[in-house]
Amino acid sequence: MGLKSKDLLGMKQLTAYEIMEILDTAKTMKLVISSANKKTSHLQGKSVVTLFYENSTRTRLSFELASKYMGSASANISTSGSSVNKGESLLDTARTIDMMGTDIIIMRHNQSGAPHFIAPYLKASVVNAGDGMNEHPTQALLDMLTMYERFDTFEGKKIAICGDIYHSRVVRSNAIGLTKLGAQVSVYGPKTMMPVGIENMGVRIADSVADCVKDADAVMGLRVQLERQQKSLFPSIAEYAKFYAITPEMLALAKPDAFLMHPGPCNHGVELPTAVYDCDQSVINEQVTNGVAVRMAVLYLLMARRNNL
Amino acid sequence: MRLILTNCKVFGNEKADKVFIEDGKIANEFPEDKADRVIDLKGATVTPGLVDMHCHLREPGGEYKETIATGTASAAKGGYTSICPMPNTNPVADNAAVISGILKKAKEADNCRVYPIGAATKGIDGELISEMGLMKEAGIVAVSDDGHPIKNAGIMRKVLEYASDFDLPVLNHCEDKSLSEGAMNEGVVSTSIGIRGIPTAAEDIMIARDIILSEYLDIPVHICHVSTKGGVRMIRDAKARGVKVTCETCPHYFTLTDDMCATYDTNFKMHPPLRTKDHLEAIIEGIKDGTIDAIATDNAPHHADEKVCEFSVALNGILGFETAFALGYTYLVKTGEITLERLIDLMCYGPSNILKLGRGGMNIGDDADLAVFDLDHEFVFEKDKMLSKSRNTPYDGYKLYGETILTVMGGKITYEKLC
Fold first, then answer.
1. Other C-beta atoms lying within 10 Å of the C-beta of residue B15
2. What is the pLDDT of residue A166?
3. Which CATH number fits domain A138-283: 3.40.50.12370, 3.40.710.10, 3.90.550.10, 3.40.50.1370?
4. CA dihedral defined by A78, A81, A85, A86, rounded to 10 degrees?
5. Would you place residue A78 in the very low, low, confident or very high pLDDT band (cuts 50, 70, 90)?
6. Do residues A220 and A174 lie in contact, with contact meaning Cβ atoms separated by under 8 Å?
7. Are A111 and B311 in contact (CB < 8 Å)?
8. Alpha carbon B369 to chain centroid distance?
9. pLDDT at A164 over 70
10. In chain A, which residues have their Cβ closer than 8 Å to the Cβ of B193?
């Protein structure tokens, strides 16, 4: 039991077997979250530090709660309250945290590959909580847990992802994880937000929102970063909402029992109309709960590996 | 100083097995007992000293990365006897005073002939043309804003015109920066690892522009470090119709590809970025058919702090002097793509001709600028043994042929492998 690697850097580094092990463990952890006494001893005597170089609400909080529910000592560093602003290098900061006896460092960073860069220098396990445009593995794992609770298998399931594909680490991690388990992923977004060669990651590039969503088992919207409009990636919110949003009509093209996901935070009325966000098919709020469960599973399995050594 | 190199093969002269050096020149035969030193080269090959038309020595301003003394020692270890440092120093080499300072330091080090390249525009800002005439008097052999492409076509035209008044070649780093915000080649790999990409189109567009300007003005232009299939094709076509365009490439563009960036190893980060295999093959094709005139190193020392960091934050470029010949020999000659003669063309006569340096003479009376390479035995390249102050090379541990045994510049031994 446990993960093979010291670190969780991305879905690229996980095997299909490890992904399923995380999802199965997360199902058990979810019981803890829903119980009256949210306390286990899985991480008792361990220390967990979150090191976030980018803003985050749900990812950071869910990691913190996950570690606290399992009994670890935990601490947080954010860029505004540490020596990061004094110009300390990432590696120096990470080594400093490592040398305080930290078992797990959970890091979010605006540079792709930042956790991959520091991990080999540290004794602590590094968990990637989002690196630049590269990966956000625990988001993909919570998305997959949400699907796994509704599917008996990922094999042959159709997953549609619409929005800003280029800048999205959520898409990359989901595409890698889902295709490893045999799902078929379709992506669509404005061509100004489509990266070159994404089809080489095993996904299908759709021709339109309708083509992307048609007959899907699950539909995922992505947050549009509104400041991208300044970079001329789309002309206006109105135009984006008209041509690229997942409207009720679009969602109706998916399978009747399909469900709607969004990693949050959502721009209501841009990528999703509020009516869709709140519709019966929406599982967006449940994704949040699953975020805690999956992060408990990841932290537990990383430490379980260490105990096995 | 009288020197005899013995038991060697001599490039361009199948019958010879000795080289005689006297007063800095290649000399007629003299008896061994008149020599200050006789060096047994054990069958290695004597070639003309190499010429690097594109490198960075970092002095003034970047002495923590490299100095003129360490950089020229590193060049000598690579078999170079003549090198051309780019002007992106601090202060920028855009005036005669800085050029004179560089030449003074080079003379003190006395490891290589240093032929500085002056900035094409003041401060390499791409706006006002530099004092090319005064810099030429101080010793520059060309102008370039390397690393800072001259984006304004009107200014590029003025640079070409004014430089031609002083018979100074213009070398341009071709990159349309409006297309190239990224940190590696745009493609499957950049998408997979989430690094912003630099499309080949960014390079091709400016190569096209410079060819058009050169053709229209009938003034030569030299394209730095070509890395793309499209660039090679356009330069080949332009040459065929008589445009005075020349170009160089670098060893990394015929030995490495962008998939090597997949682990975020910053020693594979450079500008232009490593491309895909089809581009690498087009570069080799351009080397074979003569489209590419020179192999330069773009030797770019960086301190560990500037490379041991996040990929997008790391500075661009790798060291090149100490691996260039061995990479060329191993990947181009040993593989049968080109002959040793063609390689020496690319690494000596080609650049010497473009910059009118008159280097590479192997006849009696010519300056004794020579390199000696062991072409027969494999060696392991080890970065810890480099003479550069920096260590940013992706080639550590590579097994190569063509190790430098000896370098002689003006009759003086500037590098000697301790056997």
1. 5
2. 94
3. 3.40.50.1370
4. -130
5. confident
6. yes
7. yes
8. 17
9. yes
10. 112-113, 134
A128 Cβ partners below 8 Å, 6+ apart? Answer: A7, A8, A9, A10, A107, A115, A135, A136, A137, A138
| Burial (Cβ within 10 Å: 0-12, 13-18, ≥19) of residue B89 | buried
Per DSSP, which regions of chain A are E strands?
Answer: 47-52, 73-78, 104-109, 125-131, 158-162, 184-188, 204-205, 218-221, 259-261
**Residues B101, B104, B108: CA angle, nearest 5 degrees:** 140
> Starting from the edge strand earliest in sequence, which strands make up the sheet with B412-416, in order?
B9-10, B45-48, B370-380, B399-409, B412-416
Across the interface, which of A113, A196, A197 has its CB nearest the CB of B311?
A113
Q: Which residues of A touch B263 (CB under 8 A)?
A: 116
> Is the predicted pLDDT of residue A80 greater than 80, yes or no?
no
Task: Enumerate chain A positions whose Cβ falls within 8 A of a Cβ in B.
Answer: 89-91, 109, 111-114, 116-117, 131-135, 169, 172, 195-198, 200-201
A134 and B186 within 8 Å at the Cβ level: the answer is no
pLDDT tens digits, one per residue of B212-250: 999 999 999 999 999 999 999 999 999 999 999 999 999
Contact B37, B4 (CB under 8 A): yes
Average pLDDT over residues B19-35: 97
User: Is B304 part of the contact surface with chain A (CB cutoff 8 Å)?
Assistant: no
- Pick left, alpha or beta for residue B368 (phi over 0 → left; psi -120 to 50 → alpha; otherwise beta): beta
Which two tokens mark B173?
């780093």
With CA atoms as reference, the chain A residue closest to B261 would be A113
Residue of B nearest to A114 (CA): B310
Residue type, B265: D
> pLDDT by residue (tens digit) across B97-140?
999 999 999 999 999 999 999 999 999 999 999 999 999 999 99
Q: Do A116 and B309 meet the contact criterion of CB atoms below 8 Å apart?
A: no
- Architecture of the domain made up of A11-135+288-308: 3-Layer(aba) Sandwich (3.40)
Please name the residue that has the structure tokens 């969780």.
A8
Per-residue pLDDT, A83: 56
Yes or no: domain B49-360 corresponds to CATH 3.30.70.890: no
ipTM rounded to 2 decimals: 0.90
State the DSSP code for B129.
B
Nearest to A183 by CA among A156, A164, A150: A156
Looking at every residue in chain B, the average pLDDT score rounds to: 97
Q: By the CB < 8 Å criterion, does B364 face chain A?
A: no
Tokens of B45: 């090959």
What ranges do the domains of chain A cover? 11-135+288-308, 138-283
Q: Is residue B298 among the annotated active site residues?
A: yes
Kindly report the backbone phi and psi dihedral angles of residue B172, in degrees, each rounded to the nearest multiple of 5, phi listed first: -120, 135
* Alpha helices, H only, B110-187: 132-138, 153-165
pTM of the model: 0.94
What are the residue boundaries of the structural domains of chain B, listed by start?
49-360
Tell me the CA distances in angstroms from B42 to B33, B77, B267, B344, one per residue in order: 20, 18, 35, 21
> What is the C-alpha separation between A270 and A273, in angstroms, rounded?
7
Tell me how many residue pairs between chain A and chain B have CB atoms under 8 A apart.
66
The C-alpha atoms of residue B345 and residue B355 are separated, in whole angstroms, by 14
